[in-house]
Design a protein that fits this description.
By secondary structure, this protein is an alpha+beta fold. It has eleven helices and seven strands.
């Protein structure tokens, strides 16, 4: 009697270090179904079996509620040893296996960064040391010579006050503006007579939940401040290069927005603050409106970041 050839070969597949590592990489970057299917085909197993192995790695994550998966010791070892692997390393591993020409490009903005967990003390210590090494190395360094995107990557790790001071110093130097001194209005002057002042405000959109464009400390009563230079840097997806929006807004425009009730007063009820013109205002801009603002309020010709 001739037996029919077995077609369900997934459950009996012998997982090894290479195939387990491929499943781990796919779990780590939330790989597309198209690329997972190519991997499963080359391994000689069904996609469902490969996805089930990915679930074994997912069950080891801190926030997982999966109690049905039973990861092998090899799966546990791979998870622990490679938790700090980068997205690029995962992609390269997958491309080498299925062929770069077959790899279907995915949108990296969909990657769940919560999977990039820090679950080992030594990894936390390494991050801690690298953070402070970066601060010390660039504390006295003239960062005006760095390309803008490299510059903002560094200052994004600093506290808000230090970040603003670094950006202000760079813009004044690169554009030959006249820096304001203590008790003078604005951050820099456009003329030697000190009659046309500019106030610089910066905001970073970070990967942290709830991060948005928030520009505060708008002192609209300062008579000699004629313009507000608004710099917004979007670093919400660390896999992409920073996106910078720059706006040169006449004070009259902000006064008009304030009269329309579109500026906020941080820490104070509008009904109370509205009666006091010497209260600093705040401005929120929706991320999807930043291009419109930049187009409407263009910086002067020749302006350099």
């Amino acid at each position: 009697m001739n037996r029919k050839k077995r077609e369900t070969f997934g459950p009996n597949y012998k997982w090894n270090e290479e195939s387990n590592f491929l499943a781990f990489c796919c779990y780590k970057i939330d790989e597309s179904i198209e690329n997972r299917a190519l991997i499963a085909e080359k391994l000689g197993i069904k996609l469902s079996s490969f996805d089930n192995r990915m679930q074994h790695f997912n069950s080891l994550s801190k926030n997982s509620k999966d109690t049905s998966s039973k990861p092998s010791q090899q799966v546990k070892d791979i998870f622990q040893k490679n938790n700090n692997i980068t997205v690029d390393e995962c992609i390269n591993t997958i491309q080498e296996f299925i062929g770069k020409e077959n790899y279907d490009e995915v949108n990296l903005s969909n990657i769940d960064y919560e999977k990039e967990e820090i679950n080992e003390v030594n990894q936390l210590q390494e991050t801690y040391l690298n953070y402070w090494r970066l601060q010390i190395d660039y504390q006295q360094y003239d960062m005006s010579r760095l390309p803008w995107n490299d510059f903002v990557k560094i200052v994004s790790t600093m506290n808000i006050k230090s970040r603003g001071m670094k950006i202000e110093k760079r813009i004044i130097k690169n554009n030959d503006f006249i820096k304001s001194v203590m008790n003078e209005e604005g951050d820099f002057w456009l003329d030697t007579e000190r009659e046309n002042g500019v106030e610089l405000k910066t905001s970073f959109i970070t990967p942290l939940k709830g991060s948005s464009v928030s520009l505060t400390g708008l002192r609209l009563w300062e008579k000699k401040v004629k313009f507000y230079l608004l710099i917004v840097v979007d670093i919400s997806n660390p896999q992409n290069e920073p996106i910078t929006y720059k706006m040169w807004v006449p004070k009259e425009e902000l006064i008009k927005l304030d009269e329309e009730g579109r500026l906020r007063i941080p820490g104070m009820k509008k009904s109370i603050a509205a009666k006091n013109l010497n209260v600093a205002r705040g401005l929120n801009i929706k991320k999807e409106h930043l291009n419109q603002w930049q187009e409407k309020y263009k910086v002067p010709q020749g302006f350099k970041l």
